[in-house]
């Protein structure tokens, strides 16, 4: 049986990988945000401060990029 937190971590990796393949920027950012949140949850679960900080930065950068591209005229 797979641990729910490992499943969330794997889901995060899959979402980020799918985001890399996408060519539409807004969809890419959504996949990055969702994947980053999943990996943030996993990072907190394994209690690894380096990855916790990395995922916070990654997710915030994806949110910033999404907002910037959404409000562009």
Notes on the structure:
With 73 residues, the protein is an all-alpha fold. The chain has one domain. Helices cover 85% and strands 0% of the residues. The protein is built from 3 helices and no strands. The protein has helices at residues 4-21, 25-46, 49-70. The longest helix has 22 residues, at 25-46. It starts with a helix and ends with a helix. The relative contact order is 0.17.
As for the number of domains, it is: 1
Shape: flat
Overall residue-averaged pLDDT value? 93
Q: Helix tally?
A: 3
H/E element string? HHH
For the largest beta-sheet, the strand count, sense and barrel status come to: none
Radius of gyration from CA coordinates: 13 Å
The percentage of residues in β strands lies in under 5%
As a percent range, the share of helical residues equals over 70%
Low-confidence stretches: none
- The tally of beta strands, per DSSP, is 0
* Helix-and-strand structural type: mainly alpha
> N-to-C terminal Cα separation, in Å?
49 Å
Layout: helices, strands, pairs:
Elements: H1 4-21, H2 25-46, H3 49-70
Helix pairs in contact: 1-2, 2-3
List its salient traits.
single chain; 73 residues; mainly alpha; flat
Quick recap:
The chain is an all-alpha fold. It is 85% helix and 0% strand. It has helices spanning 4-21, 25-46, 49-70.
């Amino acid at each position: 049986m797979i641990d729910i937190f490992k499943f969330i971590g794997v889901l995060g990796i899959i979402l980020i990988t799918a985001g890399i393949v996408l060519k539409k920027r807004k969809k890419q950012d959504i996949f990055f945000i969702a994947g980053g949140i999943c990996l943030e949850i996993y990072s907190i679960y394994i209690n690894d401060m380096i990855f916790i900080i990395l995922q916070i930065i990654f997710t915030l950068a994806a949110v910033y990029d999404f907002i910037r591209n959404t409000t562009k005229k």
